[in-house]
Amino acid sequence: MEHKKTYHSITKDTSYGNVVIEGPVPSDRLKNYHFDEGLTAFRPAPKQFEALLQIANFPEGRIIIARHNHTIIGYVTYLHPDPLERWSTFEMPDLLVLGAVEVTERFRQFKIASSLLEVSMMDEFMENYIIISTEYYWHWDLRGTGLNVWQYRKVMEKMMAYGDLKPSTTDDPEIISHPANCLMVRIGKNVPQSSIDTFNTLRFLSKHRRKQ
């Protein structure tokens, strides 16, 4: 499968000035920007920036960024599932994982994350993919937001809706280990029925294996 990427961008006005939301951005352009030190949800900022540069070089990898001047203050990543994860079982070329979405704290009040998802879906080629996001409550910033798991879950669903991702059922052990966890899914309008059928088997892989 050839992975085509078409650049799009929008500009948002904030009290700190304009924020440009753009992508997919290749690694050679990413290197020209500073990575905000507050982007530490997954690993220390320098290490996370290295990870983004690597993802941008993958054939299917997509990095959409939000930047204030020359500083990246938010991002969202898309790539194939990790080879060690359940979602890579059938090695589907048209399955992408929304791997991470993060916005530095001082910009979170401006709905930057929602805009990152909106810009992501401006590329018509995204209609060729099934896109998933696995949401686990232990990754959520409950302390920083003061929300409980159910309130945060509602926030996540509302944000993901900007990318047209919706909750979907699964028997994945990690997701069903807590009722607040969820699988979010977007199936592009050009995805063939054969891929949808394979994905449905993947969603209920445990059940499928028991039948074999």
Automatic annotation (TrEMBL):
- Give coiled-coil spans as residue ranges: none
Q: What GO MF terms are annotated?
A: acetoin dehydrogenase (NAD+) activity
Gene Ontology terms: biological process: acetoin catabolic process
Q: Gene3D superfamilies given for it?
A: 3.40.630.30
Protein name as it appears in the record: Acetoin utilization protein AcuA
Species: Cerasibacillus quisquiliarum
Specify the taxonomic lineage: Bacteria, Bacillati, Bacillota, Bacilli, Bacillales
Q: From the UniProt record, report the name of the gene that encodes this protein.
A: acuA
